[in-house]
Amino acid sequence: MQNRTHQNFKTIILGFAIGVSIFLKMNAQDGTIAYNFLNLPSSSHIYGLGGINISTVEDNLNLTDQNPALLGPEMDMQIGLNYMRYIGETNFAGLKFAKKASERSAFSVGFQYFGYGEMKYADESGSVLGTFAPKDIAVNIAYSHDINYRWRGGINLKYIYSAYDEYSAMALAADLGVNYYNPESDLSLSLVAANLGGQIKRFNESYDRLPIDVRLGLTKGLGSTPIRLSVTAWNLTRWELPYYDPGDGTSSEGPQLKDSFASNLFRHLIFAADFVPSNRFHIGLGYNYKTRTDMSTYSRSFLSGFSITAGLNVKSFGVDVAFAQPHTGATTFMVNLTANLNDFIK
Question: How many angstroms separate the CA atoms of 265 and 274, rounded?
């Protein structure tokens, strides 16, 4: 029975991957990349570890956000809430729920809301006609299965709806993930193909592409010390990620284009460290070089590119918070709450 379930799972993953590949080839027309909100984590822990992390293994439903292979039956009846105060008047919030499907598999459902505050709209002459509140909504369902003792695979299907004033659009996407975890050596390796899919309803005649990405992640504990280190490689669908460096503000030559091997390499990498003295408490620090260079100005904050997180588990509840300041005018804060409903219905 388990072999049949295993074979069915592999068939579903393979069939879906082939279908997505055909879909992408059929829709390989020019278009702008949109839906970048899909790259924002709903996990405070992940946000504090640099914004993208696909290999940190914990009994925390919110950590499955970017890799469905981190979902498992150990998260049975777990519920997760998240809220983020982002740049300006932007606020994000969401809800997740997980249920064990068998001793080796689990599924989860989730809802994520992205609100961007109130904006003014005007006619061609500049006369303000009113206001509107743009928003994006993502609904997802994920499934994971233990291939064997150390390997786990997962798939996350997402329905995306966007509404900007009188314009709306819809898209379908999926994340495919696999994770290898060795608890004896405290080693975790992950591979994820993220945001595969495309639009099914456009805002207008132009086609907007999803931020499709391939990611690799490694997390390793340092022996008997309560420290874990993570390295995540992302944006692996293209090598060149040039940016302009404005300098220190004293030069009259203008911004300089940075496109060296080292610059491109580090803009693909996110580094993180976790201090985990027990399963009840953790503190984490992340560094995202791409965020720091994207926000590059001669007056940028020293904290740009850095993020920090802390979490506490007490009885049936867990709380995680994260803080980052990508730019001097942009302070961001995220909070997560988790609870296991089994503890309340026994």
Answer: 23
Give the list of residues 6+ apart from residue 251 with CB closer than 8 angstroms, or none: none
CATH of the domain at 27: 2.40.160.40
> Per-residue pLDDT tens for 189-223?
999 999 999 999 888 877 888 999 999 999 999 98
- Please report which confidence band the pLDDT of residue 320 belongs to, taking 50, 70 and 90 as the band edges: very high
The tens digit of pLDDT for each residue in 1-20 reads: 445 545 555 554 555 454 44
Note down the domain range covering 72.
Answer: 2-122+129-345
Residue 59 has pLDDT above 70, yes or no: yes
Quick one: CA dihedral 220, 282, 115, 140, positive or negative?
positive
Q: Residue 154: which residues within 8 A CB-CB, separation 6 or more?
A: 64, 67, 68, 69, 70, 71, 142, 143, 144, 145, 175, 176, 177, 178, 179
Per-residue pLDDT tens over the stretch 148-168 = 999 999 999 999 999 988 888
Length of the chain: 346
Which residues are CB-neighbours of 81 under 8 A, at least 6 positions away? 93, 94, 95, 96, 336, 337, 338
Q: How far apart are CA 244 and CA 296, in angstroms?
A: 8
Task: Give me the numbers of helices (H) and strands (E) for the chain, helices first please.
Answer: 5, 20
Considering the entire predicted model, what is its pTM? 0.86
CA distance 77 to 65: 17
Q: Is 328 within 8 Å of 277 (Cβ atoms)? A: no
The DSSP bridge pattern shows strands 32-33 and 208-209 to be parallel
* Total tally of structural domains belonging to the chain: 1
CA–CA dist 190, 243 (Å, integer): 28
